[in-house]
Each structure stands twice: as C-alpha cells, then as structure tokens.
Protein: Aminotransferase class I/II-fold pyridoxal phosphate-dependent enzyme
Organism: Pseudonocardia xinjiangensis
Amino acid sequence: MTSSTADVGAQLDLDAARAAYDELRAHGLSLDLTRGKPSSAQLDLATPMLSLPGEHYRAADGTDTRNYQGMQGLPELRGLFSPFLRVPVEQLIAFGNSSLELMHDTLVHALLSPLPGADRRWVDEERVRFLAPTPGYDRHFALCERLGIELVQVPMTADGPDMDVVEEIVAVDPSVKGIWCVPKYSNPDGAVYSDDTTRRLASMPAAAPDFRIFWDNAYAVHHLTEHEVEIADVLALAADAGHPDRPFVFGSTSKITLAGAGVAFLGASPANVQWWLALTAKRTIGPDKTNHLRHVMFLRDADGLREHMRRHRELIAPKFAAVNRILTERLGSVSGVHWSRPAGGYFVTLIVPDGTATEVVRLAGEAGIALTPAGATHPYGTDPEDRTIRLAPTFPELAEVERAMYGVTDCVRLALAAR
Ligand code: PMP
C-alpha cells in the first residue's frame, strides 16, 4: 500500500491529468457521495407502509398500539428481528426510529447510573475511554467526543479489530470501558468480523468490571450478493465465557424501510435490559408501537424481510459494481491506490498514497463532487497517514455515481501526478 512518489509519478502524466481535471471542472457538476443514505427509489420500496396500520391498530395480543406503554416494544416485531440480530426475543427491545439514539442513551445512562457489574457511575471515574477500531464510523466517534469519552485507536483488519492489540489494552487498563464494533459489512471498509474475533472479544479478560462491547449490527441483512454472510452470536459467546453483560447489540430498519421513520433495536443480557428499561422509563412512557405494528404488517415474516432486502440489492448492487469497475479501469494500475470490495453494507473505502487524501477531497469538492472529509473515518477527524477516503454510492442515481466516480479518479490522478 505504500509507494514512493517516483513510482506513482512515473505512471501519471501531469499535463494529461490537469487537462482531464479542467474538463471535469468545466462541467459544473453537483454530485454527492458523502453520506450512506438510501436513494428515493429505495425509500419507494417501503412507501406502501405509510398507509398502515390503518384501522387495524391492535397487536396480536389485542394491545391497542395507539395507547401508552409497552416499554419493550411490540413482541411480534421483536420476534421478527430476533433471529436476524441474534438476540433472544425476551432480551430484545424495539424502540424509536434511530439506533444511534439508543447508543447515545446507553452511554448517558452508563455515565449517570452504574451498569450491572460496575463499581461506580462512569462520571465518577477519573477517565473513561473507548477503543475505536479505525477506520470506523464518524458518528460513533463524535458521540464519545461529545460525552467526554476518550477514544483509543486500534487498527482494523479484514477480520475485525486487531485482537492482539485489543486484548493487551483491555486486560490492563480499567479506564477502557468499551469498544465500538460494526461487526458485519463495517462502516466504512465492509469488513466482516471472523468468528475467532467475536469469540476473543466475548471472552477476553477485562480490567474494567463494567467493560462493554457496543455491537452495532447496522448492516445485519444488507447483503450485496446472494450469499447471506452471518457472524457469530456475540451474546451467546459472552454468556458462555462468563461475561453475559458484556455486549450491547444495536440495529435498526433505517436502511430496510425508511431511514427517518424506521425502528431501532437494542439487545443485551436480562440484567442489562432491565437496567436500560428502568432508566429509559424516566424519559418516555413507551415507544411508537403503531410504527412497530406497521413494520410487522409490511415486512410480514423472515421471508418477507429477505425478499424486501433482495429488492434493495437490485437497486444498489449495480452502483457498487460501477464504483469497482471505474476504480479498476482508471486506477487499477496506479501503485499505492486500492479499495474495498464489500459484500454488503453502504460504503467503499478508497486508500490513496499517504499524504494525498485531503488533496483528493479538495479537488473533488472544487469540481462539484462532495466527498466525506478526509479524516472523518478516524477518531478526532485526523487520519495521520492522510490516505483514507470513504465513498457512499447508494444515494445518487446510477448514472450520477458513474459520473462522480470518473471525476474522483480524475482527482486522484491529478493529486498524485502533482506531488
Ligand atoms: N450505525 C452505523 C454503522 C451506521 O452506518 C449508521 C448510519 N449511517 C447508523 C448506525 C445510524 O443508524 P440509525 O439510523 O438507526 O440511527
């Protein structure tokens, strides 16, 4: 992945690269590859849901979903998602529209009230730190920054975080209270945690008695191929290893049904679930059960969910294929440049030679192609190598993705040729 300036420069003609870039700028584009949002065609798939539940607002057990209560969420929706999130239905909570919100609340609860197994509240600790497998999800990092939780960077591998590094830190440092994990089709590099990584996370000794895994399974059913990748059952492995309270599992339907009107889930041990529900009962009398019911009526069952995700795949897999095809065509032989080929999820990570990512993003921005700021994939927004760029191809139309990617490759070629 490292390459000398001479290697790269030799392959790229500065005049040709500049001419291509000037032509790109002349088009006055306005394209956006910044955020992992579903396209409107994807949202259209779930539009029929908006007329549900209609007059049929009673749950299977007769509960009137229009009314208060039902803190844990509708049992039939929890039953539908339980196998996909690998959380027993009685340990699964269905809540509001955002899993990020559940992660936020869980951190705030842990700061203000001792977790099961904790000696004290996190605000009473001298310092609280979280491991941040990097590259990772910028909103996880921003959440910790906002709450005064320090981030400790650990390297990502194709199998998940580098477990030798994780085990070494977690075993000796009681201020390390947690780790962020996106175990399937990770944001941004599409990595899938190996069973061995999950087993080691679930069973490693931890100096902090209240160490937690924030297992953000945001892309549990978001396959880009016919092969449905599955990851290990972190709750079961942790319980078997004597750490039942260690994982908090998160997920949502934001990229299944409607990004702004889906349902988010939290799964954990019975003790964690009880702790969370008791504290959350102070801030709400219960979640939106009509939305839960609407989801059950629309998705129906496991096969209905699979079929719905197949229709998403038909819309977005060609966009990911276009990204890979254009990168291969235009940058395949440029040394120091490589990228992820995810089998699911919403992102592609493009690695450019050290010291050039910021310049590529700047050039793209000036040509009307918005890219996520270089460094956003790293804690505190700083990529020390300045080489990681996150591409999010789901939102624009296919033709726009193609146009944007040709433009991005022009920017990479110019940034490298001009070095
Ligand atoms: N986790 C990850 C890894 C994500 O990529 C995203 C969305 N980009 C979220 C959580 C946000 O999920 P929600 O809409 O449920 O808050």
The mean pLDDT is 96. DSSP finds 14 helices and 13 strands in the chain.
